Amino acid sequence: MDKNDLLYLTFERLLLKNITAEQSFEEFAIEVVAEYLVLMAKQGVTVPQKLRLVLEMDLTEDVLEMARKKTYGHLSLQEYRQKNTDLIESYQKRSA
């Protein structure tokens, strides 16, 4: 995965944004995809309505796979975030 890929950057930012929010992997993936599509729209990328649902489903599967790989060994996003507070704090300081 390209570290400069907008989907990956959105994934990383949302993964590290909030250590107290409890959300399932599916809810997280839906949030990432929604934000990604908004960012793409701001860049002038339009998705035909007929293809939007298919694209959303495909992107959601991609994000779920990224989340599984990134959080391997943790039972939930909450557990991953709790065990990586140093990483999250470091990311938040860089983003501020």
Key attributes of the depicted protein:
96 residues, mainly alpha, 71% helix
Quaternary structure type: single chain
Q: What is the count of distinct domains?
A: 1
**Major beta-sheet overview:** none
Class of secondary structure makeup: mainly alpha
* Alpha carbon gap, first and last residue: 25 Å
Q: How does the overall form come out from the CA principal axes? A: globular
Residues in helices, as a percent range = over 70%
Number of strands: 0
- Low-confidence parts lasting 5 or more residues at pLDDT below 50? none
Average pLDDT confidence is 88
Helix/strand order: HHHHH
* Helix count, DSSP H or I runs of 4 or more residues: 5
Radius of gyration: 14 Å
Describe the protein.
With 96 residues, this protein is mostly helical. It has helices at 6-15, 25-42, 49-70, 77-83, 85-95. It has one domain. The protein contains five helices and no strands. Helix 2 (25-42) packs across helix 3 (49-70). The longest helix is centred in the middle third of the chain and has 22 residues, at 49-70.
Secondary structure elements and pairings:
Elements: H1 6-15, H2 25-42, H3 49-70, H4 77-83, H5 85-95
Short description:
Helices cover 71% and strands 0% of the residues. The protein has 96 residues and is mainly α.
